[in-house]
Each structure stands twice: as C-alpha cells, then as structure tokens.
Write a structure and sequence with these properties.
alpha+beta, Ribosomal Protein S5, domain 2, 2 domains, 5-stranded mixed sheet, 9 helices, about 30% helix, disordered C terminus, binds adenosine-5'-diphosphate, binds magnesium ion, Histidine kinase-like ATPase
Length: about 350
C-alpha cells in the first residue's frame, strides 16, 4: 500500500456509462414527459393522454393517436442513435421535427422499465414490446423478447415504470412527488397552449377526473383562457412580428401578452422556438424591461411567445439538456418583438383612457 500513489485508472462498465449519460438527459419525470410529448407531436397526434402515479416516478404513461411505429422497427426502437427523423448531416439544418438524435427512448430504457404498445394504420393489430438498457427484453423472465401481437388502437402508448430505480441517489433527490406532478402539469400546460389544436389530458392513476383536460381544435386564446384563466385572457393582447426579405420570411413570431390592466405577482413566461419549449434569460429580461416601464413595481405580466426562425440559425446540436437557447440575430429579433409589445400596450392603454372619456 502506497499512501501517496495514484489509484489505477479503470474502464467503467458499459451499463454504468449509459446510466450516467441517461441521467444527463432525463433529469426528472417532467423531462421524460417532455421527450415523450415531442415524440407524440412529431408522430402527428391530435389527442394525447397522460397518466401519472407518484409524480411520475412509479408510472408515467403517454398515449397518443399518432402514426404509430412499424413492427419491424421495434427491435431497434430503444437503441441509442436510432431515429426516423435524421439520416444525413445536412438534414440537421432542415429539421422540422422535435427529435432527431434518437436518444430519448434509449436514455429512458437505461433508468426505468420501458414498454411500448403501438399500431400503425395499415397493421392488423398492435404490438407490445419491453425494453431495458437499450434492448428488447422479455415481459417475464423465460419468455421470448419478440414484440407480441395485442389489441390496441392506432397510435402509440409508452409506459415508463419505476423511473431511476437503478440510480438511488437521483431517486432520493426526487422525494417530493407532488412537486414532480406540478412540474408535469406545467410542461403539459405549456405544450397545450402551443398546440391548441391538439387535445391533452392528464390524470393520476386510479382517479376518474383529469387534472388537465383540453378539447381538440381550440384557438390559442381559448386554450389560454382554459388553462390560465379568464383574468388573464380578458386582458390579453396579441401581436405578430415578422421580418421578410426577397419575398420570403426570415423569421416570424406570435405573441400573446397581457395589457397594463393585468398585474400578477410572478411573471408567467412561455417561450417556444421552432415549437420547442426553451428558456432564454436574455429574452425574458428584455420583456421584463418593457413591462417595468408600464406596470407598478412588483407586478408582472403573462407572456406567451412563439418564434419561428430558419432552423439553420439555431444551434440544435447543443446538449439536449441545454434548454437555454441561442440563435443568430437574437438581439435584433428580441428588440423588434419588444418594440412591438411596447407599442401595442401603449395603444391598449390609450383606448382605455378613451373609453373613460365617452
Ligand atoms: P428521436 O425523437 O430523437 O428520433 P427518440 O428516442 O425520442 O428519438 O425516438 C426514436 C424513434 O422512435 C423516433 O425517431 C420515432 O421514429 C419513434 N417514436 C418514438 N415515439 C413515437 C411515437 N409516440 N409515435 C411514433 N413514433 C415514435
Ligand atoms: Mg424524441
């Protein structure tokens, strides 16, 4: 024994490497849900149902009526870097889907029990498959791992059970299941606003009444009213801000934001860039600045902002957990949007004054 000598370097076990990597993508039930939601939306679903037990740690199930997965694709479904959305490097710049790296299901299979029931329109029946560590596994020990034919509707149901069962430290950090459930509802609420035409529901397993439920074919305004309440919706303004060059749009944005009449304690800010829920402290600060000249101190607005930019100007190849985005001409785009908000809010308060005078 040499007290001063270095410890030998050893290669980590493959399964441990995968588990560590998965934990970087799937932080908590809500981050798994975000991936699954994006998959369902990529699959063209118009109805998405979520069922949750123990804040998503015991059970997180998402059922959609999207295009389904072909039976022949099931064996590699949960392998890392398997995707139907990207085949060449140049595709990366033209992406219109949420997913592309084929890592979500793989990651989930390393830190949870994953099963899938899926049916395409042309298939006569559904198939069910179970996954562990990226690979197909039997439903019960001793059985075959082949996907089994079963009854099922068109679409896909993904079931995640016992999330983080094999990473006890992560699991013990997530003991507050009602907090995890609140985060799940928050992600769902935001996607339901951004996808107002899609019907969403979320309930706890065993409960008959959903905690979140939206009909299909709503408008954005109706969805905001339903999910955030009438007090926000009645003071809601809307703006569309675009920039075009050579007859084609360089970028476009749509904003729903409260007028000077609405004052909350904490800002509600929903930011979607190319339909992906993201965070940007810089954009948030710029909007807060607009309102700080309008609202009394301590009061905050509701703002839902959706920006569509050329996929080539967003760096999508950042780490998947890096929700904080950066894109080309960010400052210029932010300034134009903020100027437009400022003008609309000023206009809104003028018309209120005008109402008083008549
Ligand atoms: P990515 O979304 O980056 O491609 P995922 O691991 O999330 O990677 O999914 C892998 C593949 O599984 C997808 O490319 C898609 O073909 C298929 N898939 C996953 N979820 C669904 C779903 N709900 N409906 C249809 N296909 C799905
Ligand atoms: Mg995906």
């Amino acid at each position: 024994y040499e007290p001063s000598g270095p410890a030998p370097i050893r290669r980590l076990q493959e399964s441990l490497i995968n588990r560590i990597a998965a934990g970087e993508i799937i932080h908590r039930p809500a981050s798994a849900l975000k991936e699954l939601l994006e998959n369902s939306l990529d699959a063209g679903a118009t109805a998405i149902r979520v069922t949750v037990k123990d804040g998503g740690l015991k059970l997180l199930q998402i059922q959609d009526n999207g295009c389904g997965i072909r039976q022949s694709d099931l064996p590699i479904l949960a392998e890392r870097f398997t995707t139907s959305k990207l085949s060449t490097f140049s595709d990366l710049s033209k992406l219109t889907t949420y997913g592309f790296r084929g890592e979500a299901l793989a990651s989930i299979s390393h830190v949870a029990h994953l099963s899938v029931v899926t049916k395409t329109k042309t298939s006569a029946c559904a198939h069910k498959a179970h996954y562990s560590d990226g690979k197909l596994v039997p439903a019960q020990p001793g059985q075959s791992e082949e996907p089994k034919p079963c009854a099922g509707n068109d679409g896909t149901t993904i079931t995640i059970e016992n999330l983080f069962f094999n990473t006890p430290t992560r699991l013990s950090a997530l003991r507050n299941t009602s907090d995890e459930y609140a985060r799940i509802l928050d992600v769902l609420t935001k996607y339901a606003i951004h996808n107002a035409k899609v019907s969403f529901s979320c309930k706890k397993a065993g409960s008959s009444s959903p905690d979140l439920s939206t009909p299909s074919a709503s408008t954005t305004r109706q969805a905001i009213k339903m999910l955030y309440g009438h007090s926000i919706e009645k003071d809601l303004l809307q703006a569309t801000v675009n920039e075009s060059a050579n007859n084609s749009k360089v970028w476009s944005s749509e904003v729903y934001f409260t007028s000077a009449n609405y004052q909350a304690k904490k800002m509600i800010f929903l930011l979607f860039i190319n339909s992906r829920l993201v965070e940007s402290s810089r954009i948030k600060r710029a909007i807060e600045n607009v309102y700080s000249g309008i609202l009394p101190k301590g009061a905050a607005p509701f703002v839902y902002l959706s920006i569509k930019i050329d996929p080539r100007s967003v760096d999508v190849n950042v780490h998947p957990t890096k929700k904080e985005v950066h894109f080309l001409d960010e400052e210029e785009i932010t300034t134009q949007i903020c100027d437009s908000l400022q003008a609309k809010i000023a206009e809104g308060s003028h018309s209120r004054v005008f109402e008083y005078q008549t």
